[in-house]
Design brief:
Blueprint (H helix, E strand, L loop, with lengths): L1 H10 L4 E6 L10 H7 L2 E5 L6 H9 L4 E5 L7 H8 L6 E5 L4 H10 L15 E6 L5 H14 L3 E4 L6 H9 L4 E5 L7 H11 L3 E5 L4 H13 L3 H4 L14 H13 L17 H4 L16 H6 L48
Parallel strand pairs: 1-2, 1-3, 3-4, 5-6, 5-7, 7-8
Helix pairs in contact: 1-11, 2-6, 5-7, 6-9, 6-11
Length: 348
């Protein structure tokens, strides 16, 4: 909720929110592009009850439109009934399909308007990731970029392109597909099928040898060829626990929009060798370099929208992950999110 509050504060007001299951999360990871298109915050719910803080956010911000993504197995009709009965009396809409692939396509269809294009090109575009658990991280690191460009995030099997995904690409005449993930997540056969059978003009793969390396390559894309379009800020970093998929989902609007002003946020998972130098905690409002903090800096550091907990010692090669670091926003601008996957007990 801290992330949604930060988004609302930066925007000044929020009239639309997207709600998805915080338990299955598969529909939530595909909602970033729609959130960008509607300028909406992304909130997560339990399947058995709408969290009180979610209901309070909707009422306090006088939200007029709520879009629920996912079928009744993920978000039961009882949740929609609760939403409709809130004090702000929002209009509630469900977007869903027969399965996760069809739901992702339906979310893409809801974008409306002209087809979104890739960075600096005039080609209509979509992001494609693996729809299984192995593709969850790839979808999350794509979130800020998808939000900023309003791109649909579509799902596929590793070796089989679902009919719903194929139909979306064909119906919307998507010319460029950006595959995020390695060959094990989205095979070469899928890429060939996109070009030879679906009629996609350009297929670009962003990947590395692991989930961490893929996140680095996405960050490089956002800091490289997409930097001018995204107005990517290179000065600051944010930390998220390696297993905090829910935080990454909710962070897409905040970081895609940028903190304070426009600008997009790449996500990276640093290696152990670089971890001590990229962990940022500065007590100086003008600081643009980051290093392992002193005790004074640790006490003065601010968490980025509650995504991390206070740390008790620096996140270095020997102590990374022993506790979760916090990040200080040194000035009101958008910042890069370097996805630091410090596990609670051991650095990876």
């Amino acid at each position: 909720m801290a992330l949604a509050e930060r988004f609302a504060a930066d925007e000044g007001s929020v009239s639309t929110v997207i709600i998805a299951s915080g338990e299955s999360q598969v529909d939530a990871v595909t909602a970033a592009g729609l959130a960008g298109n509607l300028n909406a915050a992304v909130l997560l719910t339990r399947s058995n009850q709408l969290p009180h803080n979610v209901a309070r956010f909707i009422d306090e911000h006088n939200v007029t439109d709520v879009i629920v993504v996912g079928g009744t197995a993920a978000v039961p009709d009882s949740i929609l009934t609760t939403l409709e009965g809130l004090g702000s009396r929002p209009t509630v809409e469900r977007i869903s399909g027969a399965d996760r692939y069809a739901t992702a396509a339906a979310i893409g269809d809801r974008l409306g308007g002209p087809n979104p294009t890739w960075c600096g090109s005039d080609q209509s575009a979509a992001i494609l990731v693996n729809g299984g658990d192995e593709g969850r991280a790839d979808a999350v690191v794509s979130g800020p970029l998808a939000f900023r460009l309003g791109l649909p995030i579509l799902l596929t099997g590793a070796d089989e392109l679902p009919e719903a995904t194929r139909a979306f690409l064909d119906d919307n005449k998507v010319e460029r597909v950006v595959v995020v993930g390695g060959m094990g997540a989205v095979s070469a056969g899928i890429v060939n099928e996109l070009v030879e059978e679906v009629g996609v003009v350009n297929v670009q793969r962003i990947s590395g040898g692991s989930a961490a390396a893929t996140s680095v390559m996405v960050a490089k894309e956002m800091l490289g060829s997409c930097a001018d379009v995204l107005q990517t800020n290179k000065d600051l970093v944010a930390l998220v626990n390696r297993d905090a998929i829910a935080d990454g989902i909710a962070a897409a609007p905040v970081l895609g929009r940028g903190l304070g002003v426009a600008g997009s946020v790449p996500i990276r998972r640093p290696t152990l060798r670089t971890m001590s130098s990229v962990v940022v905690c500065s007590a100086s409002p003008s600081a643009t370099t980051w290093s392992s903090p002193t005790p004074t800096q640790r006490r003065s550091s601010l968490t980025l929208s509650g995504m991390a907990r206070p740390w008790t010692r620096p996140c270095t090669a020997s102590t990374a992950g022993a506790s979760k670091p916090r990040v200080r926003q040194t000035r009101p601008v958008s910042l890069p999110l370097w996805w630091i996957w410090c596990s609670p007990r051991t650095a990876r």
